[in-house]
Design a protein that fits this description.
Two copies of one chain form a homodimer.
Chain A: H1 6-17, H2 22-28, H3 41-53, E1 57-64, E2 68-75, H4 77-88, H5 100-106, H6 116-141, H7 145-150, H8 152-177
Helix pairs in contact in A: 1-4, 2-3, 6-8
The structure holds a DNA duplex (30 and 30 nucleotides).
Domain Transcription regulator PadR N-terminal (chains A, B): 11-83
Pfam family, one (chains A, B): Vir_act_alpha_C
InterPro entries (chains A, B): Tscrpt_reg_PadR_C, Tscrpt_reg_PadR_N, WH-like_DNA-bd_sf, WH_DNA-bd_sf
Chain lengths: 182, 182
DNA sequence: TTAAAACGTGTTATTAATTACATGTTTTAA
DNA sequence: TTAAAACATGTAATTAATAACACGTTTTAA
């Protein structure tokens, strides 16, 4: 019941900002969007077809260089209405997340387990790198308060991802520090 | 391409602690495990069959009451080796999460958007409730430091979920507070 | 005593998502 | 000038996941 297939709304949301190609949309999932939703091009191209057949988007063909055809997708008024509805409608689901690493920890019975330091250290490094990357991105994309206002949603998403990562790093550090000394 | 199908490892991990029925396993995903992985019984029962055919688990039939047959699954030594491998092997993937609400925010162009207060308030309530629930659980399940050591993994998972939720609540509060006053 | 809730196990159908296959063009840097 | 990287668009095959269908038992509280 109700609203699944969130990919369609994300695509519409992106096209609501500006016309984009399937390739552009795919790339969007590699950057900030990818922090909160993932999709491959093999999911995106068929979805674009479906959205077009339903009248939510249209496309225009442009030629890049000599003969490379790009399909630039535009949102229609019906599509815009659909995005508006999606955003306005409540989100009571609390989309559950998955975390393989935390699950592995769950099966570690005791804080004496000799594998713990190595496991935690590996994650600490990974998450520290990611945190650094997000920090840099936030600083370069939104250097001023004015820049934050130009695309507030983008700012929010990056900043939320950063805070989430920050928590993860701190938690790993604390958990490591709390381990019994050998 | 290495190791997908993480459900199998989670099931094995749980059976490594104690023999369980399919129903028990299903319930495990309703509680603490569910914070970091989800699975329905329609995924679990077939997976149990597969694991058994591969020799990682076996089952024993017990009768509950007059005639209700329960299949109690046990892990085999091969299965135990598989769990050990899974835990010991590195986790370099950083399992990406999904969050529909944050995505909706992404498509809000400006902090002047009249829908923002309502959207954020709804989430604040949901996450505050969840946080309270996790706090209570942590307090009842692990009232003492000694209790934490009895099943350290369980403690870690609950405590991590709580911290994550805490961050989410604080972020929502800050974002709400930073909104321009009407 | 009886109805509801919880226990218990399965399958089928559908949809979502990933991986792999498949092909070609344009740009950029060595 | 040429090879690699990036651009660009699709389909097919497989696997993961959810929702729905289906059935029966035991326990518990009204």
């Amino acid at each position: 019941m109700a609203q699944k297939n969130k990919l369609q709304f994300i695509i519409l949301g992106l096209l609501n900002q500006q016309p984009l190609t399937g390739y552009d949309l795919t790339k969007a999932f590699d950057s900030e969007i990818g922090e909160f939703w993932q999709a491959q091009h093999s999911q995106i191209y068929p979805q674009l077809k479906r959205l077009e057949s339903q009248g939510y988007i249209t496309h225009e063909i442009t030629i890049s260089g000599e003969k490379l055809e790009k399909k630039l997708y535009h949102i229609t008024p019906t599509g815009q209405a659909l995005v508006r509805d999606w955003i306005t409608t409540g989100t009571p689901e609390l989309t559950a997340s998955k975390d393989e690493f935390i699950l592995k920890l769950y099966f570690v019975q005791t804080n004496q387990d000799p594998r713990l330091p190595e496991m935690l250290t590996e994650q600490l490094q990974l998450h520290t790198e990611k945190l650094a990357h997000l920090k840099m991105r936030l600083k370069t994309v939104f250097p001023t308060v004015t820049a934050q206002k130009v695309h507030y949603g983008h700012y929010l998403i990056l900043q939320h991802a950063l805070g989430r990562e920050q928590y993860y790093v701190e938690w790993l550090q604390q958990t490591l520090a709390a381990l019994p000394t050998v």
